[in-house]
Every structure is written in C-alpha cells, then in structure tokens.
Amino acid sequence: MSLLLPALPEEVTMRRLIAAVVLSVLALGTTASCGGDDGGVVTDPKSTSKSADSKGGSKSKKPDADDGKAELGDTLSLKGLNSGTRLDATMEKFVASAESSNDFLKPAAGKKWVAARLKLVNKGGKTYQDAPSNGAQVTDKKGQGFHATVVEVTAGPSMSASLKLPPGDTARGWLVFEIPKSSVVVNVQWTPDSGFAPDTGQWKVS
Questions:
Q1: Whole-model pTM?
Q2: Which residues fall in a compositionally biased region of kind Low complexity (predicted)?
C-alpha cells in the first residue's frame, strides 16, 4: 500500500535540499574542521570606525557605545565550516520596513518585511560557496528569532542564492525577513555555510 505525502512548499523543499548538501560537506570535512575551538557568537568588531543607521546613512559611533558589541557598519571575522575558510562579514545597512519590488508579492497579513544588507569578503584560500540567506536570522525585543525569506525588495539587489566567491573577492546583497508588524528588531545574525559554521556574527540594530 502506498502512502500519499502532502506536497511541501518550494521554499521548504529547497532549504532541505541545501541543508542535505551542507551536511554531506560536514561529514567529509569533520577531520579538517575540528581543532578544539567550538566557535560561538562573534560580536567583537574587526573595524569600528563607523556605523550605519537604519536609513542606510553612516554616522560616527557614540563615545559610550558598548565595547565589543558590533553595530551596523562593523566588520566581523568569521570562520567557515572547513579548515582555512575565513570571511570578513559586514552588516552595512538595515531597513525597518522594506517594500516589495513585485506588485503581486506582499507580506502575509499581520506581517512586515525588514531587510539587512550584508557584505562578504573571502579571506580564505579557496572559493567560498554558500546560500547566505540560509544562515541569516533577526531577533526582536521579545527574544523571538526569524529566519530569512526569499523575496526581492526595493532597497536593492538580494544576496546571491548560490554564491561562489573566489579568494579576495567581495559579494554584497540584501537579506529579507518576515516578522510580525509589532516586532522591533534588535539584532541581526549571520552564520557562514548555511548556518553550519562554528562562528556566528551578530550586529546590534537598535
């Protein structure tokens, strides 16, 4: 007797497929990746000269800004899943109310879109491949976390869904999140290798 399983949304199916691929890489690279450092949330900026505001402009940091807490415009150095993978990640801008670039595609009822622009520079010795939106998340004041969704917004081009970044090259694009209208985002997080890397970068938004 055959069982009929319900069809999965295309986005869920794609995420599961990407996760399966990444897990295969993890299995192959376990020996190279294990070095006694389990990684963690990285908030200590590599550079702290300027910070971007939620409207996309730049501003000097306040003298009383918390030391070691990355803000918009700060660069974090993050380890990837495989040995030798290193990325400079900068959360450049944040939009608290993002608008769709498609007249027929809108947030669900009671929801809104927010967007963050991520810049990546490959500091490793090999081409870095990823679907960066899989490793992105925002957290609101209630501590609720929300993962990225795949939509286009008027703020600018989305981050590539199939990134192949040679050593020394730069990639830049927007990550979009659907959250309740009442939510206020306080942090944006990004983890390399679709969320499987040991390091997670975190930037304060508000």
A1: 0.76
A2: 46-57
